[in-house]
Amino acid sequence: MAQLSNKIEIYLDRKIDFTKDVILQDDGDGVVYIREWNVEEVQPTDEQLDAVESQANDMEALNQVYANRKAEYPSIEECVHAILDDDLENLQILRQVVKEKFPKENA
Question: Angle at CA 56, nearest 5°, toward 51 and 62?
């Protein structure tokens, strides 16, 4: 199940500041709901947010692929050394291995 924050951003088709624009709340029971709606657009119904569930799930899966890749890609320091040592071919091979390990198609 997609996070409410992601469904809201997909519904509004933009990034939201969840500290002032839309305030979400969890009362400790694991149910997250909209506490405050401070944007111009009309607050969506549960049905409208449920309608973007699939898109939000896809977005979350893709974001996980990006996080996995980032964790395994060579560090900035390793990239700089590869550039300075004229070893870009090896760097690209390392990056391709990570991309193949975490393909976008499976997201």
Answer: 150
